[in-house]
């Protein structure tokens, strides 16, 4: 070993922005996250050049996985063109040399804020979800140490109580996004604020999902072919949002998750939330296999 | 527009090795290719000065120490590099940390050489496996699956990564192994 072998040519920053040590720590934690599906693993959560809460967790996971051959798609609430998605995408391609795409079928790494694409993900794709609050128990137990003990004991009674109270008060489960789900029959996770519509897409999927919360410094994962069961009572079945009959006013698509656009006259119009799916329909381009067909989730 | 920073010599190897490890753990029993053969590339992708490691082979132990990791006895190590063919290796494997209910992530990662497609077939079930998968690994002690079952009391347990040349198979703690 000499000084020459230890010295590297000067660069403004490392490949993929994170340094080698940060990446190794992410790798070690991702291994444990995959090994214990749904269990929150603490990690260091390095600084990245965006503010915490804007996808730093997702970015760190993507930066660890990215290589020059990767194809990256970034989604913000279904859209590829929001400021957050566009900035993250530009940053990712700039520090990695990876190609960016808007097409779900082309992407190998899909970093997403709060949506799962409508087209089915394959085994060669990784979905990275940005997570604002990784702790499903936060609403019922603000103390993190006690919440950790409750996970250790598989003590989820208070979550069931929350759902029960919603039914008593409102006649139905009011939990919209972040619906708590039991993973591999052991750990309850919050699937990040994806709508109820998207949660069944994680159950027994072909793809690996990594959920990373940068501000909260927690990472967890749902491997392929893993059971993800939303917490439901036997006599109150799981219900997704009533979007099955809605039609997108721009693309004409029916039976997908929609954004509601309020109109001046008090009515509302709808447009498909997965923006590139809408673009494909408008361009009459080929749409891949979708999870939902005719508004019904397919097994 | 700036161009992307250049990866150094280690980066593509570590990145591709980790991709193989992650895919192998996400789909237990499936074989994945690494760019370089042996246990060392796996170690270099995962281990650095924040880690405590144990290796039963002196040469590998030396290489690991150069990564900055502390070389410690098996019961303190978070990464173990063992040849699982002998009685003494079984004793070392038994001492591997399995984490706790509070911190399952403190369970160890065990990396071991094996010969793929050789030895008795075992059936695998669990997350990452659609129905069941089979796996046969040679150069392992007959007791290895019994010892692993003793250590892997889900969510406690160890991750096992088996390496045959440039090929790699992994078993997370969530996988149930049935012999015979």
UniProtKB/TrEMBL annotation, chain A:
The keyword S-adenosyl-L-methionine applies. Keywords: 4Fe-4S, Iron, Iron-sulfur, Lyase, Metal-binding, S-adenosyl-L-methionine. Pfam families: PhnJ. The keyword Transferase does not apply. One of its GO terms (biological process) is organic phosphonate catabolic process. Its EC number is 4.7.1.1. It catalyses: alpha-D-ribose 1-methylphosphonate 5-phosphate + AH2 + S-adenosyl-L-methionine = alpha-D-ribose 1,2-cyclic phosphate 5-phosphate + methane + 5'-deoxyadenosine + L-methionine + A + H(+). GO terms for molecular function: 4 iron, 4 sulfur cluster binding; alpha-D-ribose 1-methylphosphonate 5-phosphate C-P-lyase activity; metal ion binding. It comes from the Bacteria. Belongs to the PhnJ family. Catalyzes the breakage of the C-P bond in alpha-D-ribose 1-methylphosphonate 5-phosphate (PRPn) forming alpha-D-ribose. This is Alpha-D-ribose 1-methylphosphonate 5-phosphate C-P lyase. It comes from Psychromarinibacter sediminicola.
From TrEMBL, chain B:
Keywords: Lyase. Signal peptide: none annotated. One of its GO terms (molecular function) is lyase activity. It comes from the Bacteria. Pfam families: PhnH (PF05845). The keyword Hydrolase does not apply. GO terms for biological process: organic phosphonate metabolic process. Gene3D superfamilies: Bacterial phosphonate metabolism protein PhnH (3.40.50.11310). This is Phosphonate C-P lyase system protein PhnH. It comes from Psychromarinibacter sediminicola. The gene is phnH.
């Amino acid at each position: 070993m000499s000084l020459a072998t230890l010295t590297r040519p000067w660069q403004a920053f490392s490949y993929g922005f994170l340094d080698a040590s940060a990446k190794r720590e992410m790798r070690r934690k991702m291994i444990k996250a995959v090994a214990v599906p749904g269990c929150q693993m603490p990690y260091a959560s390095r600084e990245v050049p965006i503010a915490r809460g804007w996808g730093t967790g997702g970015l760190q996971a993507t930066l660890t996985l990215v290589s020059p051959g990767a194809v990256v798609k970034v989604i913000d609430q279904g859209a590829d063109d929001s400021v957050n998605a566009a900035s993250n995408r530009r940053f990712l391609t700039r520090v990695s040399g990876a190609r960016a795409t808007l097409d779900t079928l082309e992407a190998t790494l899909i970093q997403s804020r709060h949506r799962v694409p409508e087209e089915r993900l394959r085994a060669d794709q990784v979905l990275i979800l940005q997570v604002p609050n990784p702790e499903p128990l936060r609403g019922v137990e603000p103390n993190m140490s006690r919440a950790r003990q409750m996970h250790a004991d598989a003590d989820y009674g208070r979550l069931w109580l929350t759902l029960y109270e919603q039914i008593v008060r409102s006649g139905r489960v009011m939990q919209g996004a972040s619906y708590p789900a039991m993973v591999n029959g052991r750990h309850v996770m919050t699937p990040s604020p994806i709508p109820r519509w998207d949660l069944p897409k994680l159950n027994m999927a072909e793809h690996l999902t990594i959920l990373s919360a940068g501000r909260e410094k927690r990472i967890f994962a749902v491997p392929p072919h893993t059971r993800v069961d939303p917490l439901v009572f036997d006599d109150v079945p799981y219900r997704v949002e009533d979007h099955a009959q809605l039609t997108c006013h721009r693309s004409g698509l029916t039976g997908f998750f929609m954004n509601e656009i309020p109109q001046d006259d008090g009515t509302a119009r709808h447009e498909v939330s997965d923006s590139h799916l809408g673009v494909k329909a408008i361009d009459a381009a080929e749409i891949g296999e979708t999870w939902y067909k005719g508004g019904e989730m397919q097994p | 527009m700036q161009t992307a920073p250049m990866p150094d010599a280690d980066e593509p190897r570590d990145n591709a090795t980790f991709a193989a490890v992650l895919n192998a753990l996400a789909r237990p029993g499936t074989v994945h290719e690494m760019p370089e053969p042996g246990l060392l590339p796996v170690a270099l992708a995962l281990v650095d000065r924040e880690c405590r490691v144990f290796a039963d082979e002196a040469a590998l132990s030396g290489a690991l120490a150069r990564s900055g990791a502390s070389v410690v006895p098996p019961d303190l190590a978070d990464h173990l590099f063992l040849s699982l063919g002998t009685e003494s290796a079984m004793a070392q494997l038994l001492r591997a940390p399995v984490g706790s209910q509070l911190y399952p992530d403190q369970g160890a990662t065990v990396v071991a050489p094996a010969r793929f497609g050789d030895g008795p077939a075992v059936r695998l079930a669990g997350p990452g496996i659609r129905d069941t998968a089979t796996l046969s690994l040679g150069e392992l002690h007959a007791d290895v699956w019994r010892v692993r079952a003793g250590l892997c009391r889900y969510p406690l347990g160890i991750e096992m990564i088996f390496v045959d040349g440039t090929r790699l198979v992994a078993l997370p703690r969530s996988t149930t192994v049935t012999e015979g």
